[in-house]
Amino acid sequence: MEGRVPFRESCPRCGMDVHVCVNCRWYDRNYANECRETQAEPVLERETRNVCEFFVLRPDGPDEADPIAQAKARLDALFRKK
């Protein structure tokens, strides 16, 4: 996916929401509010769809340092349909 990501966009492969904090280039667990964009409104649920206007899709996928993202990736790999 390139360009602006619609709020309701879903991954064509797994059906998960795309417009979520952990998929954003500004997401960083080590910053206040877990976001490097200083103007962004606080978001409570980092892995569910949100309407942040500053969202930019990470070129390298979700933050792999995030233990929840790591666990989901392992589950996806385990139950991946062929």
Describe this structure in words.
With 82 residues, the chain is largely without helices or strands. The protein has one domain (1-82). The protein is 15% helix and 0% strand. The longest helix has 12 residues, at 67-78.
Which descriptors apply to this entry?
82 residues; little secondary structure
Largest β-sheet summary: none
**How helical, in percent, are the residues?**
10-25%
Please give the number of β-strands. 0
| Backbone structural class | little secondary structure
The SSE order reads: H
> What percentage of the residues does DSSP assign to strands (E)?
under 5%
What is the compact description of this entry?
The chain has 82 residues and is largely without helices or strands. It has one helix at residues 67-78.
Write the layout of secondary structure elements.
Layout: H1 67-78
